[in-house]
Sequence to fold (273 residues):
Amino acid sequence: MSFTNAPVTLSLVYGLIGTSIAVSLLDIKHYFYILVDLHLWRFHQTWRALVYQLCYTNSSEVLFAALTLYNLRVVERMWGSRKYATFIFVTLLLTSILSPAILALFLRPLTLGLLNYLPAGPTPIIFAVLVQYHAMVPPIYRYKIATSTSTQTDDQAPGIAFSDKSYRYLLALQLALFQWPGSLFGALIGWVVGYSWRMEVLPRSLIRWRLPGWVVGIRTQRRSQEFEGLRRRLEGEGASTGAATGVQDQADAEGGRRRTMGQQVMDQFHGAF
Fold:
């Protein structure tokens, strides 16, 4: 159980913990949540939409978010770090725009100002990753918690069915309920964005686009270096083939010069006559 083959998840967990601690120590938590009427309509602080997912403002959310991201690292291992980092980046951009916009333009007027608060934290991103985990990773085993004292042992016995994936969903659910309804709304937006990516509802060019390899530590060779390596391999194969052909020709020539004892005796008789 480690971050092996999951460098992006490692950076997310450490970055989330580090920024949350720094924000708490510097006493700047008030910059990382959104009150629609105050921050967007009155003071026009639209920049908050770009920073509200950088950290959490309480330790409980940090703990549950770190545990959830750690348990979802299998998605990065199945996709690869470059695709996973691209997905995180695209999801960050989409949820940073959609969540405040939908809340300010639709939900707040429809609820008469009841929904006015969007809490800090990358809850939408975590739920977008959770969609991929739900679709890609099958359960290993299932179990049931009995809800009665019945002695039945078959599958028809009353109870609540769970799987080995259930506790991961419970961690994410708790994260969505910490500061509801705002946190629950963010989780719903993240789930919709993740599902849209999964079903290719988003533009195909956006889904196929990838971050540069150096972002995740992948070193890509230049085209000239690739051609140089190909040329050297071809030259090496040609030299080895030529050497093998020369050895074979030399063996055939030596074989042609060798004559058996019978052939030598017949040559003597041919020479006598």
